[in-house]
Amino acid sequence: MRFKKIFAVVMAAAVTLSTLNGFHGFSAPKTAKAASFVNLNQSQITSAMGAGWNLGNQLEASLNGTPNETSWGNPTINANLIKAVKNAGFRSIRIPVSYLGKIGSNSSYTIDSSWLNRVQQVVDMCIANDLYVIINMHGDGYHSVDGGWLFCDGSNQTAIRAKYKACWKQIATRFQSYDQHLIFESMNEEFDGTYGTPNRTYYENINQLNQIFVDTVRTSGGNNAKRWLMLPGWNTNVNYTVGDYGFRVPTDNNCTAGGKRIMISVHYYDPWGFCGEESTTATQWGSKANNSSKVDSWGDESYLKSQFNSLYNKFCSQGYPVVIGEYGAIDKSAFDSNNTACRAEFASKVCTYAKKYGCIPIWWDNGVTGTYGFGLFNRNTGAVTQPKIINAITAVYPSSGNNSDSTGSIDTGKTYMLKNVNSGLYMDVCGAKAVNGTNVIQYSASKAKANNTWKFVPDGKGYYYIYSCLGDGRTFLLDVSCNSSANGTNIGIYKNTNCSAQLYKLVKNSDGSYSIYTKSSGCKSVVEIANANRSNNGNVQQWVYNGHNCQKWQLIAQ
């Protein structure tokens, strides 16, 4: 399955062009260095991570043994792409990372600090969008990659283990203060390069590496003692991880979370003829298939269900969530007009059974949007290229973070107080004046009053009008001054003007709060308290989203 990642001939030709793409729209994001770590249990982390997406063929891309995010033809990662993934409805992003030639040859195996800085930048882009993030050690164990070294069949396991431990010590230390949004995955598709029944000696070497990973991360300081950690079995194969082939869950004696905090990592590309084989033989799958000659002879829905059920019985039922770290099916629509519908159904069924059996599904996206590609987005523009597949995923995970209140938790028949997460104060109409242009501030409140309560009225197109309860409760709306898109634009109340200044989208955050996006900014900015003020009279304004708590609001129904 490694060929889903490496397109050497195509990618090498694209290197020069791709390096011309810069950090479009990048601004310094907030980091996940939170003051407090929310210790999520198994059901909470599974629910919070929802459906995920892979930033594949980027930070694990390499040329002649040196990692570079544009080496396989994709543009430089930018914040707009990450925002597009969030807006499409995904809750989590898996970021494959290779180190290879970025690891020094000295005895301490020092990782190039500029490379770690870049990994951290990309993690922060995701965290700024309230996404859960998985980073791993991806291509270092590939026999097919120049500079690979993390080999379970290597002759000098002592040296491999020392290098592996030194690398994870540096990675874990770099991210030790990050909150629960960050998850570490020990390695990727680790095996001896030979498909078939695992060699038990080599499998035990994988177990030893996983144990080193857990022990090293747990003792590296900060929040790492309670962070969720993710571990694969042989080649992330379901059968070879569940069955009696040699996999064992490592001990986790240094975990301080008060419960299990280990996830199991597997991948799902069955049947490979439909999912990954670059041929026109198998282009259809599932109930949407209309030509039996185009369907593989195995790997149907019943097989999928049995595989995920086995994961539940072996791991999920014992307190270990399973992450389907990669799944997907390549685009063969150029050869079969029914292929897209079948791919969408495949995605739907993977998500359906993942949700049923307590797993977390993460679609593999390699950035290739044409024939034989896994891509769901144009990585230059952030535009969705496979809406049917994304819709199939988000139909199963409707609360996975769309730029709308898809959870249905806002009761439009009720009124709400809006409590700022950062300050604990409430959105309030200054002086309780029901007059055009009256400023909106934050203020303490012991009870609900007309000046600090609001009503949400949908416009039927995914947006809400937010009415102040002052006066008759149907006249004055939360309003972005002059319909501006600029940072710092003041927000007050105004009579209905039927324009974008009075329309908002709500995104539910993992802590249950909401970010309130302004249509006037093209949903790039949100309603916030200026300068993260925590005092009475702190001003309400519009600012580009950065994930700070001053941009999050708890909706308290009255």
Helicity, in percent? 10-25%
Q: What is the CATH first-level class name of the largest domain?
A: Alpha Beta
| Helix/strand structural class | alpha/beta
For the record, give the distance between the C-alpha atoms at the N and C termini, rounded to a whole number: 54 Å
Shape: globular
Write up this protein.
It is built from 11 helices and 22 strands. By secondary structure, the chain is an alpha/beta fold. The strands form 7 sheets. An 8-stranded parallel barrel has the order 1-4-5-6-7-8-9-10, surrounded by 4 helices. It has a 4-stranded antiparallel beta sheet with strand order 15-14-11-22, with no helix packed on it. The protein is globular. The termini are far apart.
Notable features of this structure?
22 strands; 558 residues; Trefoil (Acidic Fibroblast Growth Factor, subunit A); TIM Barrel; eight-stranded parallel barrel; alpha/beta; 2 domains; four-stranded antiparallel β-sheet
What is the element layout, followed by pairings?
Blueprint (H helix, E strand, L loop, with lengths): L7 H11 L23 H8 L2 E3 L7 E2 L2 E2 L11 H10 L3 E4 L17 H15 L4 E5 L20 H18 L7 E4 L14 H19 L10 E4 L5 H5 L19 E7 L3 H4 L25 H14 L7 E6 L11 H18 L2 E5 L23 H10 L18 E6 L5 E4 L10 E4 L10 E5 L5 E5 L7 E5 L10 E5 L8 E5 L5 E5 L6 E5 L10 E5 L8 E5 L1
Parallel strand pairs: 1-4, 1-10, 4-5, 5-6, 6-7, 7-8, 8-9, 9-10
Antiparallel strand pairs: 2-3, 11-14, 11-22, 12-13, 14-15, 16-17, 18-19, 20-21
Pfam family, one: RicinB_lectin_2
Keywords: Carbohydrate metabolism, Cellulose degradation, Glycosidase, Hydrolase, Polysaccharide degradation
Organism: Jutongia huaianensis
